[in-house]
Amino acid sequence: MVSFSIISSFGDLPFPEQVAAATHASLLLFFLFFASARRVFACAIRRVPALKDDGRNPLPVRRDPGCDRLVEVGYWFKVTTFCCFFVFFLQAVVLGYETVNLVTGEVESRDFTLLYLPSAQASAWLVLGLSVFHCKLKALVKFPCLIRVWWFISFIFSLYIGYLDTKGLITKSISLNSHTLANYAALPALAFLFLASVRGITSIELYREHGDLREPLLAGEDEAGCLRVTPYSEAGLFSLATLSWLDPLLSVGAKRPLELRDIPLLATKDRSKTCYKMLNSNWERLKAEDPENQPSLALAICRSFWKEAALNAVFAGLNTLVSYVGPYLISYFVDYLSGNIAFPHEGYILASIFFTAKLIETLSTRQWYLGVDILGMHVKSALTAMVYRKGLRLSSTARQSHTSGEIVNYMAVDVQRVGDYSWYLHDIWMLPLQIVLALAILYKNVGIATIATLVATIISIIVTIPLAKVQEEYQDNLMSAKDERMRKTSECLRNMRILKLQAWEDRYRLILEEMRNVEFKWLQRALYAQSVITFIFWGSPIFVSVATFATSILLGGQLTAGGVLSALATFRILQEPLRNFPDLISMIAQTKVSLDRISGFLQEEELQEDATIVVPRGLTNNSIEIKDGEFCWDPSSAIPTLSGIQLKVERGMRVAVCGIVGCGKSSFLSCILGEIPKTSGEVSISGSAAYVPQSAWIQSGNIEENILFGSPMDKPRYKSVLHACCLKKDLELLLHGDQTIIGDRGINLSGGQKQRVQLARALYQGADIYLLDDPFSALDAHTGSELFKEYILTALAGKTVIYVTHQVEFLPAADKILVLKDGHIIQAGKYEDLLQAGTDFNALVSAHHEAIETMDILEDSSITIHSGAPPVFGKRLTSSPSSTDKMKSETPENEPPSEEKAIKEKKKVKRTRKKQLAQEEERERGRVSLKVYLSYMAAAYKGTLIPLIILAQITFQVLQIASNWWMAWANPQTRGDSPKTSSIVLLVVYMTLAFGSSLFVFIRAVLVATFGLAAAQKLFLRMLRTVFRAPMSFFDSTPAGRILNRVSVDQSVVDLDIPFRLGGFASTTIQLLGIVGVMTKVTWQVLLLFLPMAMACLWMQKYYMASSRELVRIVSIQKSPVIHLFGESIAGAATIRGFRQEKRFMKRNLYLLDCFTRPFFCSIAAIEWLCLRMELLSTFAFAVCMALLVSFPHGSIDPSMAGLAVTYGLNLNARLSRWILSFCKLENKIISIERIHQYCQIPSEAPAVVEDCRPTSWWPETGQIELVDLKVRYKDTLPLVLHGVTCTFPGGKKVGIVGRTGSGKSTLIQALFRLIEPAEGKIIIDNIDISTIGLHDLRSRLSIIPQDPTLFEGTIRGNLDPLEEHSDHEIWQALEKCQLGEVIRHKPQKLDAPVLENGDNWSVGQRQLVSLGRALLKQARILVLDEATASVDTATDNLIQKIIRREFKDCTVCTIAHRIPTVIDSDLVLVLSDGRVAEFDSPHELLEDKSSMFLRLVSEYSTRSSSVQDA
């Protein structure tokens, strides 16, 4: 009976004490159960291996003998432990005191209820204290989540009970007792524990100790961090619900800036490979199911990810249902406060339901949002991989209809848009559900007037549809304009060297600015249309509410304060789906467009699988066999590219292919590779192939990676390859050896070096068949002949080799020579047989004879130099015996390092990379500087719009609160009471206030759009101008992908995101202050809770931002390699396919995607982690507010005002999390401004024009060039490349510049054009020091035909005369002179003949001739030829030289050439060696000097050609 009375007496306790005791007891039981269950589970796990294999010994724990683990306990942990035991001590004292009183008191008066709360609390705090102490033994970085929740709840209960006790003592309804005193005493300790629960960190650190060295264990992690899989994959239910699995990463981020290695790997199911395989298999299955019709990519995505979407739908549905609980119950709550109590404890039960609903809503919202983010991430990863794979397999015809920029856009824009649709996925079915729920609640409150709500809602939706269509049109046009600008930007960045050399950068910058203006026009329309949509978004609930209330009044219905507040809360919830509907329609349309674009691309024609037939090696003796081959790049063309091809190449044969420019030599190799569409015939290949293209394709990375090309390292083979390709000495001289980083597209290598790296790559693969497309054109005579001997004759002896060449001297070594003309093999046979046959082959050899004879005449002659020549011409220095090629960017002055030194250097690769030309992408660390915010705000109208925006938002908030307050105050509190004003006044005042508020929202939206547009345009123009004015070294060391990332992704953020983020942050701040204001007006006591809550929020935000900021920066940086690999792979697709390396590149793409998704996944999870904690805090604050309202005596507060507070309180958690989130997102997005700001600070090259020192319009008049002690280095940290070059090129003379590859020839030319500024010395042209005049004045007066011929996308006319300075007649004359007139006349569009991206539809030789045409049009007094004829045959070269002699007879012509006949008839020859002048004299004088280096070069060329001479 006693026990029964004890249990039954529990109900006599005050309600707060009942809840507190029950909660502590429940948490204690749960904790004990959880601890024991975990122990049992751990034991079971430990037993499993023993059952599997009893004989196997467990692995011992590896310990470093010199390394001890030290646990260091911080002050925070000590105080926390003390607080726990202090509270336990207080409760134990109370329990003892009350027990003594009960024992000594009378039996009849014993009240056992006094023991319930101290018993539960003493037991709980003892367990809590011991658990906290256990954290030290386990060296936990963070307190367990359950303990933190327990502390949090304890503080809330203590605060609430303390409030009730204080109120009771003031009103003298209770007397002071032990419970009250203990509660007051415990409150400071519990407040500290509340902060500890929010902070979470124990301040326990684990250290390693090595003698005197102490370091945190975490700091010792390097690459090992990457081996950890994210805890998300194995997290328990509680960890998933609270997102506490992210705590370890955030803890690291709070201590130091995060790096990529800190971020754990994704779980297998989340990795790109898994997602890609799933989507690809479903896509292929759909294609196979119905081959006739176009498969649906949307259906393939649904089949692949439906399970994720379905689970996510559960959270979305649950969230929608519980979000309507609050609006439904408000009317009951107002009735309760008005005195209409339906059942006992109704107030507390209502408050509990409100709290539970908000708690479920908070938890489900975070799971829903995280789920859609992960779903979007999976879809994006899978689609990106599919687009990449397709890009590697495209046929030539399909490739012509998609530029690399467009393919990158499919990945960067369309895939992103499809992934973002996951956010709108559930809106299709949720919108009707939300409307039905809203109508049900409204029907309860306003009756039949709900029909008006439905009609008004439908009208609101219909009004937004045309706006959404207009917005969609603007968005489409905006994206098209952006695509065009990005394509042109990409082209300009790739070809910045030629733009600077030709002084065209201003012209192309203006073209880009014009393209941006078109884009900006659509951006303006899109943003202002968005302002109208914002107005409708805020206006539609007002319109719906006015229609509902007016109808209700007109129909004679009586509105009550509770009903009105319930309706207003419902309208506020209904606002979201109404706003989302136009977005949903727009997003569906945009996603459909993107899906169609991607689907269309994925169904493009791939390379013919039957283009080549692979024959097993044992079945045939032929490596290659072509029967009746007919091939055509353009299937619609009537004239085939190659026709009548009959060829048999036996295993081990060497086959040379020759012919004039544009005859089809490169196409011939493409037909063997299966690259060119086959219209008829058969191509059979037996054995593996390696391909070396004419235009070198080099990957960004180091030299070793380019040579290995995915194969494992085999040191002996690697060394023999370096020797065969004459690369060994180069690498020994380099500071970083073969670890030297090559810039974007090999930009910091000379043409010859790029070719030899390509050849090394092919040789290392150990293929059976080698297809070499003119590999010797970029090499000097010595290197070329040595390479031919070591590479083709020695290293490839016994291999099948087909090599295209213009060098006739390499033809006799071939077993068979093919002569091509107009796509036909017109002659085939051995060298001697073809010579006797005469015709075209004879013409090629005759041209070579002609060139050699010129050299012979010069060698035999003994003509002395003209007596009037300056004495400096006779200068001859002792030439360096070294014939080593050098990297253009790095030429150390010290001796080559020994083998040991080289090994040591390679060990330091990671530490020394910062000294190399190509650098890792820079990123800021720590907080975003306030300067960045201020620079953005001042970018538009000097920041004058900011206060106007804030004022408009404050006015909106005040009017909105006033309109709601008016409705709550003016209506009767319960049915039967009389209203405080007439219906007309009620409606008119409400409409005035409500529509006034939405008008100010419109004003704010327009001001934000105006501000954002002006700031975005100003930042873009500043960045564009700075980048175009950057020195060439910036482009050499910065991959184009990085710059493109800033002008596309970051600029899009500035255009579309940041202004609305700023406006949104200001808006949310003011809304939050409004909510807090309304709640404190009714219950001022809540303010006491808001202060610690605000501190906790700010601390959490700071804690979160430390990690989030770095994660966003890492995400931005990791995006660049994905874009870069895309562009690089598409450019080198033929090489990748030639080596059969598609799988490896696909793996690389998947790896880079995972490197991007790892930080992205953590970034989105971190946002939800913060929001969850923010919303939980605000939910508890709301619960306290509700409890206070319930505990007030009836009649002490106005029920309608209390209802208004609850209406706003329902929105508190969403607003608080949105406030913190908007600030965090703003700071994350502002990183884009930071990144653009970085590119606005790039040091500029010299000014384009120096007004005080402008040359005359006829300068240079004579064209005399003086080099005075010229010293040049590529970078301050790198050695000199030119060492004190001094010589004079007389005006009007022809000067040949020769030397080994890498001797400084191209560097000298770059110094002449001031692409590199001299370290010392000067260059004087016609008595003007070129460093004193503007770069535009200098470069526009010089002309160059560069080593790498460049064509821009457009037309032939646009390529010859981009500045539009010449007539068509002059252009035709130039074309005739450069031997292209006939070719262009045959084109149907004539001068408007199209030029594709990179000039891919023109041969390399033809591109070189177009460059000559540019020089002929420009007619500058000084002309520089940098290997200008390397890619044309000897006959065409001879012809070009004659044209140059005729057309530029009065000009100074500086010719860099490896073909000695090209420079042999120059007036003067400058021989460079190791960056010094070895010789400078006339060719006649140099050839007479038997020790002359020039004579050695001529002899090497003659020796190489001796076989031709003998013939």
Automatic annotation (TrEMBL):
Name assigned to this protein: Uncharacterized protein
Domain annotation ABC transmembrane type-1: ranges: 310-590, 948-1218
Amino acid composition bias (Basic residues), ranges on this chain: 904-916
Gene3D superfamilies named among the record's database cross-references: ABC transporter type 1, transmembrane domain (1.20.1560.10), P-loop containing nucleotide triphosphate hydrolases (3.40.50.300)
SUPFAM superfamilies membership: ABC transporter transmembrane region, P-loop containing nucleoside triphosphate hydrolases
Organism listed in the record: Musa balbisiana (Banana)
Species lineage: Eukaryota, Viridiplantae, Streptophyta, Embryophyta, Tracheophyta
Highest taxon, organism lineage: Eukaryota
Principal cellular location given in the protein's record: membrane
Family from the record: Belongs to the ABC transporter superfamily. ABCC family. Conjugate transporter (TC 3.A.1.208) subfamily.
Region (Disordered): 869-921
Segments crossing the lipid bilayer: 20-37, 75-94, 114-133, 145-164, 184-207, 309-330, 421-442, 448-468, 526-547, 945-967, 987-1016, 1082-1101, 1151-1170
Cellular component terms (Gene Ontology): membrane
One Pfam family per UniProt: ABC_tran
Function according to Swiss-Prot or TrEMBL: ABC transporter that may affect phytic acid transport and compartmentalization. May function directly or indirectly in removing phytic acid from the cytosol or in vesicle trafficking. Required for phytic acid accumulation in developing seeds. Phytic acid is the primary storage form of phosphorus in cereal grains and other plant seeds.
Localization per Swiss-Prot or TrEMBL: Membrane
